[in-house]
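As promised in the previous annual report, we have extended the structural survey to additional targets. Below is the entry for Elongation factor P.
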Amino acid sequence: MATTSDIRNGLCIKYNNDIYKIVEFLHVKPGKGPAFVRTKLKSLSTGKVLDNTFPAGRKIDDIRVETQKFQYLYPEGDSYHFMNTQDYNQITLQKSALDAPELLKEGEIVTIIINTEDNMPLSVDMPSSVILEITHTEPGVKGNTATNATKPATVETGANINVPLFINEGDKIKIDTAKGAYLERVKE
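The corresponding structure token record, generated without further manual editing, is:
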């Protein structure tokens, strides 16, 4: 048993007969009244995100998990196939278990959280950023970069990302997987 002081991003808990992963949290100590913890919980079975408030000091039922490195192999409908990098066993996960499936490139190494009680995979943690190549974008207009203007671009996985005007087709860019946003252009 844990308490609200143990809450952190990525913690898996049992709540309302389901398993949730804490996506965001904030400890709040108002001037009047007791402290509380405001959280965003993502259901690991349905993928839905809900906001919840726990009073400070409340007991929460945490789940023992272990993480393992897996390599992304290929998609098949709503299923995604992964291979364990140590023993080469393959597993298949549904799209709802992934945070940003549109940014997954074949061969990408991800961390999969596994419940130690029943050895079932719970969720997939992407690397903090990925490097992808631009496959389609409109040409940028020279001299039009004084403002933070952006244009839509399609990357090699099919995802659409807003990029600065100076990015062209064939450029490789670094993308923040948590926000799905452009970070920087990558030089070879």
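The first strand starts at residue 2 and ends at 3. The two ends are 49 Å apart (CA to CA). These points will be discussed at the next consortium meeting with the crystallography subgroup.
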